[in-house]
Amino acid sequence: MAEEKKEPIAIELAKKQREISISEFFTKNRHLLGFDNPTRALMMTVKECADNALDATTEMKILPEVIVKIDQLAEDRFKITVEDNGPGIVKKQIPNVFARLLYGSKFHTYKQQRGQQGLGVSAALLYSQLTTGKPTKITSKIDPKKPAHYYELGINTKTNEPEIFEERDIEWEKDHGTKIELEIEAKYQKGKQSVDEYIKQAAISNPHAHIIYTTPEGEKVEYIRATNELPKESKEIKPHPHGIELGILIKMLHDTTANTVQGFLQNDFSRIGPGTAKEIIDDARLSINKPKNLEREDIERLFNTLQNAKVIAPPTDCLSPIGQETLEKGLRKEINADFYVTTTRPPTVYRGFPFQIETAIVFGGELEKEAQVRLLRFANRVPLLYQQGACAITEAVMQTNWKSYGLQQSGENLPIGPAVIVVHMASVWVPFTSEAKEAIAHYDEIIKEIKLALQECGRKLASYIRHNVRAEEQKERISLFEKYIPELAQSLSVLSGEKKFSIEENLRKILKKNMSMLLEENGLNENDKEANKK
Questions:
Q1: Statement to judge: residues 171 and 39 lie in one domain
Q2: Does 229 map to a domain?
Q3: Whether the predicted pLDDT of 484 surpasses 80
Q4: Is the pLDDT of residue 60 over 60?
Q5: Domain that holds residue 52
Q6: Which pLDDT belongs to residue 470?
Q7: Distance between CA 231 and CA 206 in Å, rounded?
Q8: Is 116 part of a structural domain of the chain?
Q9: In the chain, what is the greatest distance between 2 CA atoms, to the nearest angstrom?
Q10: Which of 448, 466, 492 corresponds to the end of one domain?
């Protein structure tokens, strides 16, 4: 009897192989997006929806009015509603914007913005769908004279396509804006990594925003805007030749509309003029003039030449920092302290991407004296609450010598003292360590800039501590001694036979002289002390 012929194992394996959609991938790997535990899931959902709302108002150039409400439906079930006064979304785009992962207009845009990957709000919708099975409700209106569009949406995880469960026009009292309502399984708790903390920090980094937040416990917290001035508008720029990789160059050559290599270099990159373009072509020894006809060897030579070409740094009008005065206003509004200092560094570049570092130090007041300082991290105005230990910001803070600025520090650890340290990175492309966007990668250029900014603030903090805090502590010790003068004078009078009154008067003169010397050493007089207190 003839043996049954078996198919090769490769054919059997091929039958099981199929394409995986991005939605299907993140269904099994939602921790990559930051939805790895119930507490964090609540914060991430609010974060993505609120970031969307703040971005929308930025695009409309209007002061943000953002309403965030969390209703607790059961022990582990919450309804989240986020509403804004932005431009709204065109009807046909609503399903794609909210119910398709990696869909958006920001990924290929070279300018500072909160979102980059097209994952945020659609990831929140996917998490809602996975944990409750309920559709997400979207209401959006683009014009006062037109009705609002209402959708109930889900994501087909096999195709990464929107599923529309309901669609209709409705009346909505707002002139324009968007509202998103979704239910999720989550856990609410207070603390440094809570949704409450995220909203508070968002109010600090966006002092132009008016945010009304209702907690799951029904408490209504209103964050009044600290300024009516809109942030500086960030303008789109073209890629810089020092910021691309070989694969990107190949794609750019394939996609370009330029007919010549020189036209491609001038039109598709920033900071390359006619003279520089001709020099690059000569150095790369290119004989082919059409970008799409370049051979692999030609492209590699062109790439290597671009990396070594002397091209000035990219323009920095693509950035929109918070600004020293505005950042201080945001901090004063939310943190009660005695001393505030902020700084904004000049823009610089890493891998061809412009970025700018801002730092602040808040000291004294109601802050704890013996506790580790609080570190507030921001990227493009978005608070970073998780993965602090993995972040370049944390490394830069720990590498700074805080003892020389008046704070206690053990080794390369966060300092101890009544202070809050704030670091904000504004960039065209923030190098996050993961899709969850919670920590910044350890680029030497970034760490160097953060340290320089911290040192600038640190010097002003040291001056304040030397002139005020240390003098005040010495004055308190002298005042304490003053209380015992009568008792000391009485004892000395018994021992010496001199009059108590005379001894007491001499002791007070000595104290006064020491106080004057103390203030003089710290560059102050009594009037200065009173002015500083005010």
A1: yes
A2: no
A3: no
A4: yes
A5: 22-223
A6: 60
A7: 9
A8: yes
A9: 133
A10: 448
77 and 107 within one domain: yes
Asked whether residue 148 falls in the same domain as residue 274, the answer is no
Based on the number of CB atoms within 10 Å of its own CB, is 235 exposed (0-12), middle (13-18) or buried (19 or more)? middle
247, exposed or middle or buried, with CB in 10 Å at 0-12, 13-18, 19+?
A: exposed
pLDDT in tens, 367-415: 888 789 999 999 999 999 999 999 999 999 999 999 999 899 998 899 9
Sequence-distant (≥ 6) Cβ neighbours of residue 427 within 8 angstroms: 112, 319, 353, 354, 355, 356, 379, 380
Q: Are residues 95 and 52 in the same domain?
A: yes
Q: Which helix (H) or strand (E) holds 357?
A: strand 353-363
Residue 53's CB: how many other CB atoms inside 10 A? 27
Summary mean pLDDT of the chain: 86
Which tokens is 459 given? 């010097």
Query: How high is the pLDDT of residue 257?
Result: 92
Strand 348-350 versus strand 374-379 pairing type: unpaired
**Closest C-alpha among 283, 286, 285 to residue 311:** 283
Q: What is the model's pLDDT at position 521?
A: 60
- What is the predicted pLDDT for the residue at 26? 61
333 belongs to a structural domain:
yes
Question: What are the structure tokens assigned to 385, written together?
Answer: 């609450």
Q: How far is 306 from 304, CA to CA, in rounded Å? A: 5
- Both tokens of 447, joined, read 């760490």
Q: Of the candidates 223, 254, 286, which is a domain's last residue?
A: 223
**CB distance 347 to 354 below 8 Å:** yes
pTM for the model: 0.80
When divided into structural domains, the chain yields a total of 4
Query: For the domain that residue 178 is a member of, what is the CATH number?
Result: 3.30.565.10
CB 328 within 8 Å of CB 342? yes
Both 89 and 219 in a single domain?
yes
pLDDT at 22 over 90: no
Could you tell me which residue, 196 or 22, shows the higher pLDDT? 196
Do 175 and 29 lie in one domain? The reply is yes
- 65 located within any domain: yes
Angle at 232 between CA 228 and CA 236, to 5 degrees: 145
CB-based contact 276:260 (threshold 8 Å): no
Query: Are residue 256 and residue 369 in the same domain, yes or no?
Result: no
Please give the sequence-ordered ranges of beta strands (E in DSSP) within 40-147, or none if there are none.
65-74, 77-84, 136-141
The tokens for 139 are: 């209401």
